[in-house]
Design a protein that fits this description.
The structure is a single chain. Helix 7 crosses helix 8, helix 8 crosses helix 20 and helix 18 runs parallel beside helix 21. By secondary structure, the protein is an alpha/beta fold. The chain folds into six domains: 88 residues, 2-Layer Sandwich (mini-chromosome maintenance (MCM) complex, chain A, domain 1); 161 residues, Nucleic acid-binding proteins (OB fold (Dihydrolipoamide Acetyltransferase, E2P), Beta Barrel); 83 residues, no CATH class; 163 residues, Rossmann fold (3-Layer(aba) Sandwich), CATH 3.40.50; 101 residues, no CATH class; 65 residues, Arc Repressor Mutant, subunit A (Orthogonal Bundle). It has 25 helices and 28 strands.
Length: 721
């Protein structure tokens, strides 16, 4: 049903005068440049008119914009082109991109989508002025985005196109900013095994630059068609593109996961009834098919906290601290790293999985690409991290990423922003996601280590740069070591789990032709009758907690973390001094330079995130001493397992003591080669090959000179005393 223009104009005028006079006055005064109109306002004023708007939005909105323009001019405004933006459409107008067809063309629909690509801004002629050969001017509204519409006949002389020439008078044309974006349906709503549907959307006027790649929006838009071309010929097939009417930014995260009142009651009941063993239940619910060895138990413990995460906060001065927990799994082949990553990416709301062997820095962050918008320009395309915003990014084969590409990951993990300056495009994208990475040794298996060996020794076997280790809150080493009793338990678990499964072909036959239905049950059982939470319920549990629970640390929790932090820093220093004092081969200078700093403020922030995550699991707005105790226990365990006694080791790959010892060794080598003289430049060059910073070399040389171990016979050259 299409409304005639004479009927639409008075209805719009009545609505503007009766319902939105204040908003119109703000447009006239220049405070705003558009009328944002919730659909329910128009529906309350005139239900029939609102329904017609859904059926024929293009014509109705055009008449509305004209009525608004005339009203503003009558109130004293200068010539302007205000827009009417209708938003908050009824739920029955909500569509999935994959189901948009010919019946939806030229109707007003809404869709929950993510933005994957954004083009540059181009001006488009909105109202064109053509001049005939007889000097008569003709005005044409340009409704088609793909082709310039020209007059067919002159109203002045009456001649038709072809007999006279029509010239476009650009100076008199009215222009509007135009931008194209690519949208994609929410991955969580994509049927299993299917590719996410996508579409091209045209934004105009005040809508340009409202969205960035990676953001999730509710797009209120009009599906339109244009004919596919084969060379210069049109075909009977049509492509659907969309004209954006309004954009609703995501105001509440995880709305893509539908949580009913019954689900909330079940979540609260679970937390109340399983308060004492809730974390243990979550541990058994993470990849229940994987047998939890001693180390894997602690890994799953930390993964449970990663799913819920801490609270990102913004200080009064604008400084932001991340709340997401980053975890790195290093392990031999066959220890179930990839399975854990796959499970976590499927379990986490907005989880993404990728492999380092097939991804570049652009694929992880963002890329400027020449796209399918057919203009040959660059468009910004979001990578895995921006698309995982407020979710989890699982990166397998992390060691396969080139060193040039890993450098782009540093700010994305710590600052959680991706800054792009490519192809003439400068933008900043959010990457507020937890990172779960898995790395393998270059030699196939990790070398056996002594009980006192640091985990950074194994980290170097992956080939990853040492500074990358400091970006992770927890680093776990999973080694495949033969143990008779444990091997038997693992073998039995694998066989029982495999035999209890259902044939994939039989399962496909059962659900063929129907979309898979996720279970509404809260609990499920393993082959050994042990209980675990179902994936569907756990996703709702995580989404509800992250959406509604934002804990802060109480005084007791803060006190416990501070005590642990201070005690750890001081105890290691004292223990080193005591051990060093008995070694008479070390000078007082050597003892001073080798003092270890086991933890820094970075470690304290990790402890806070773990504490807040445990409080979130229990739906507590205040993180208590119990939460802090769990966080400290996990942190202690990974630090004990890793044997890291100096924070410098995480930053550089070598402890301060090891760096000092290596520089001394280099100095002795140079002294022996030159029979005494040691040029400072040569010491620095050789140390840089060993990834030792120049500042550390200069500081050590200066202290050795002060203590009389070396002297400087000539400028920049040293010798041992």
């Amino acid at each position: 049903m299409t409304m005639l223009a004479p009927d639409a104009k008075p209805r719009w005028r009545s609505f503007l005068e009766d319902v939105t006079p204040d908003e119109v006055q703000r447009i006239v005064s220049g405070q705003i440049d558009r009328l944002e109109l919730p659909f329910h306002k128009l529906q309350s004023f005139d239900p029939d008119f609102a329904e017609i708007l859904l059926q024929d939005p293009e014509n109705i909105l055009r008449e509305g914009s004209n009525a608004l323009k005339n009203y503003c001019i009558e109130m004293g405004a200068r010539d302007m082109e205000p827009f009417i933006r209708v938003d908050h459409l009824p739920l029955d107008s909500r569509r999935e991109l994959r189901r948009v067809g010919h019946a939806d063309v030229q109707r007003l629909i809404s869709a929950e989508v993510s933005v994957t690509k954004v083009s540059e801004i181009k001006p488009r002629i909105h109202r064109s002025i053509f001049q005939c050969s007889c000097d008569y001017e003709i005005e044409i509204m340009q409704r088609d985005h793909t082709e310039l519409e020209e007059p067919l006949q002159c109203d002045g002389c009456g001649e038709r196109k072809g007999r006279v020439k029509f010239t476009l008078i650009k100076e008199k044309c009215s222009l509007v900013d135009n931008q194209k974006i690519e949208i994609q349906e929410i991955p969580e709503r994509v049927p299993s095994g299917a590719q996410p549907s996508s579409g091209m959307v045209i934004l105009e006027g005040d809508l340009v630059n409202r969205v960035l790649p990676g953001t999730r929006i509710i797009a209120n838009m009009i599906p339109q068609m244009h004919s596919e071309r084969k060379g210069s010929r049109k075909t009977p097939l049509f492509e659907i593109f969309y004209s954006m009417v309004s954009v609703e930014a995501e105001t509440e995260p995880f709305t893509e996961i539908n949580i009913e009142e019954d689900d909330i009651n079940e979540i609260k009941s679970l937390v109340e009834n399983r308060r004492d063993d809730l974390l243990e239940l979550l541990i058994s619910s993470i990849a229940p098919s994987i047998f939890a060895t001693r180390t894997l138990y602690w890994v799953k413990r930390s993964l449970a906290l990663q799913l819920f995460g801490g609270v990102a906060r913004v200080s009064p001065d604008g400084t932001r601290t991340r709340g997401d927990i980053h975890i790195l799994l290093m392990g031999d082949p066959g220890v179930a790293k990839s399975q854990l990553l796959t499970y976590m990416s499927n379990l986490s709301p907005r989880g993404k999985f990728t492999s380092g062997g097939s991804v570049t820095s652009a694929g992880l962050t963002a890329a400027a690409v020449k796209d399918g918008f057919s203009d040959g320009r660059f468009a910004l395309e979001a990578g895995v991290l921006p698309l995982s915003d407020r979710g989890l990014a699982a990166i397998d084969e992390f060691d396969k990423i080139s060193p040039q590409d890993t450098s782009a990951i540093h700010p994305a993990m710590e600052q959680q922003k991706v800054r792009v300056a490519k192809g003439g495009i400068t933008a900043t994208l959010n990457s507020r996601c937890a990172v779960l990475a898995a790395a393998n040794p270059k030699s196939g298996r990790f070398a056996p280590t002594s009980n006192n060996a640091s985990i950074m020794q194994s980290f170097q076997e992956t080939g990853l740069e040492a500074p990358l280790a400091s970006r992770f809150d927890l680093i776990w080493l999973l080694q495949d070591r033969p143990e008779r009793d444990l091997d038997e338990k693992i073998a039995r678990h694998i066989l029982q789990n495999r035999t209890s499964g259902v044939s994939e072909l039989q399962l496909e036959d059962q659900i063929r032709g129907a979309a898979p239905v996720e279970s509404d049950e809260m609990m499920a059982t393993n082959h050994d009758n042990s209980e675990h939470l179902t994936t569907g319920f756990l996703r709702k549990y995580i989404a509800y907690s992250k959406r509604n629970i934002h804990p802060t640390l109480d005084e007791e929790a803060q006190s416990d973390l501070i005590k642990y932090y201070i005690a750890t820093r001081n105890n290691y220093g004292k223990s080193w001094e005591n051990s060093a004092s008995s070694d008479y081969s070390l000078t007082s200078s050597q003892r001073k330079e080798q003092t270890e700093v086991p933890v820094t403020a970075r470690a304290l922030e990790s402890l806070m995130r773990l504490t807040e995550a445990h409080a979130r699991i229990h739906l507590r707005e205040n993180a208590t001493r119990k939460d802090a105790e769990v966080a400290i226990k996990i942190f202690k365990h990974w630090r004990h397992e890793s044997n890291i006694k100096d924070e410098a080791e995480i930053q550089t790959g070598k402890s301060k003591a090891a760096q000092s010892s290596l520089v001394r060794s280099i100095m002795h080598q140079i002294s022996d080669k030159n029979r005494g003289p040691m040029p400072l430049s040569e010491i620095i060059d050789r140390a840089s090959i060993q990834s030792i910073d120049e500042a550390i070399v200069r500081s050590l040389v200066s202290r050795m000179k002060e203590q009389g171990e070396i002297y400087e016979p000539s400028l920049g050259t040293y010798e041992f005393a």
